[in-house]
Model the fold of this input.
Amino acid sequence: MKITPTKNILNSVLELVSYYIFPIIYIWHYNLSSLKLNITFTIMLGMIAFYKNFFKPYRPNTYFNIFYSVLFIVICAFSIKSLNVFVMILLYSQLLLLFISKTISRNLKILDTIIESFIVPSFCSIAISFVNIHFISFTFIIPVLLVNIAAIIIDFYDGENIFDYLQLIFMSAILIILYYMKYIELTTSIAIIVFIVIMALIKNHFKTSNLVNRIIGNLLLII
Done:
C-alpha cells in the first residue's frame, strides 16, 4: 500500500483527537474540572500521534529515533514545573514502545496491534485525565480500555471461524459482568456491545480502520 503523506498527517491529527475524546466527555459529564490546555503536554501527545501515523510507516532508522527522543526530552524539560514527572515518563514510555513495535516481526502482528491500538491510546488518554483532574478512577479507566479492546476485536474479526464469534460472546459477557459489578453504566455496556456487533457485521461491506473504530467507540460513550 502506497504511503501518502497527506493521509498520514490527517490520521495523526485524528489520532491526537482520539486521545482527548473520552477524557473530555468524562470531565464534563462528572463536572470535575474545566479542561486545561497545557501547550507542551499537547505537543508531547502530538509527537506520539505523529510518530505513530506519519513517521513510523516510513520505518525511520535508529538515528532518527534518537533525534526524536532527544527532542521529546527537551520538551519535557520545559514542562518540568507544570507537569508531573511521572506523566512525562508515562508519555515517553509510549514513544519507546512505538520505537520497539517498528522492529516487531510481521508474524507477531498481534503484538504490534496491542501496542499501537491498545496500550498507547489507553495510556495517552489516562495521562490527559490525570493532568486535568489529578486522579484516576475505575469509572474512567475501564471504558477507555473496553473501547480500545473493542476496536482490536473488530480489526481481527472476519467471521470465518468460531473463534471470531467467541470473541464477541466473551466481550459481551465481560461487559455484563462489569455492569453488575457497577464499574460501568448500563448505557455504556449496551453501547459498546452494539458497537462491536454492528461494526463486525458490516466489516466485509464497509471496512474501517482501527483509528476510525476507536473514534466512533469513544463518541458512543457520550450516550
Remarks:
- The chain has a mean pLDDT of 87.
